[in-house]
Here is the input.
Amino acid sequence: MNFLDGSLHPENQQKLVITVAPYAPEWMPSDFPEDIPVTMAEQVQMAVDCYNAGATVLHLHVRELDGKGSKRLSKFNELIAGVREAVPDMIIQVGGSISFAPEGDSDVAKWLSDDTRHMLAQLSPAPDQVTIAINSNQMNIVEQMCEADLAGTSIATPEIYRAYREMTIPAGPEWVEEHIKRLSASGIQTQFQLGNIPSFETVERMMRRGVCNVPLVLTWVAIGGGSDAPNLYNLANFVRACPDGAVLTLETAMLNVLPLNVMAIAMGMHVRCGTEDNLWTQGRDRKMSNVEQIEQLVRISREMGREVANGKEAREIYKIGTFYQDADQTLAENGFAPNRKPGQKGFTQFG
Here is the structure.
C-alpha cells in the first residue's frame, strides 16, 4: 500500500468499516452472561444492536441453547435468515473456524472434516462472506494472553486452556483452492484471515495462477501463537506487502485490540472488535460489551475526522458481489503487478 502525501488526511480515506465479532465461540456464556447471547432471538438482537451502534460487518458464529458453539448448518441458516431480515444492509461474514467451538468436555477444540467445512458454501440464505485461513498452521490463541485476561473465565481451566493452546488450523492448498472455488460459485466472497507474510504470498500465487479470482479483502490476524505479534514492525511489514487494491482490516486480541484499531483508523484501514477478541476495558476494571466497543471506535474515528461507513457504503468498500474473470483481471483490480509474459525481461508493470 502506498502512503502518499495526504494519505493520513481523513478526506483522502475511505469511510471506516467496523467488523464486530460478538458471538465469541471460545468463551462460554458464563464468562460474560450480560453480553454473550444464547437464544436465537438474543443472537439476532445482538446483530441489530451492533449495527445500530455503527458496525456494518457481522462476524457470525452460532450457539446452541446449552451455550456451546453450534456445528449444525441448520442453526447457521436460521441465524443468517434472522439477521438478514432484521438488518438487511449488514454484511454477514460467517466464521470459517466454526468447528473449533467446544463440542464436548473431552473434545474442546476439534475442527470438522474438510467435506463438512466445504458445506459452508451451501448455507441458505447465503452469507456475504466466509472467512478462510491460508496454510496449515498453529493457532494458539492463548499464547499472548496473560492471567489477568483469563481470570475467572472458562479458558482458565487447565483442560480448556490446553485445548486452545494446542489448536492448529488445517488449511492445505488442495482444500483451500477447492473451498474458494465453491464459495465463488455460490456468490459468496472469500474473506482472507492472514496471520503472516507467507500466508499472504500464498494468496498472491493463487491469484497469479488464476485459481483465486476474487477481490483481496483480508484481515491481518495478529494474535501470536502461529500468527504475527501485534507490533508496529510486523504491521508495517504486512501493510507494505499489500497491494493498493487490497481492503485491509486489522485484528488482534485482548488489550491489544484498541491500540491496534486506533492505528488502523489513523492510517485509513478498517477495524474489528467484539467479545470474541476482547472482554475487558483497557484498565481491566470491568468487562466491555460489544456495543460499548463499537461506540468507542465510532467516537475515536469521528474525533479524527473520519466518518463511519453505513451498510451500503461498506458493501461498496468491501466489493461485495464482485468476482473476476481471470488472473489478469484479478491482478490488475487488486493492484498487483501483472504476470510475466514469455521472454519478458526486467520488472513487470501494467501499460
In short: The chain has one domain: 14-334. The longest helix spans residues 40-53. Confidence is low (pLDDT under 50) at residues 99-109.
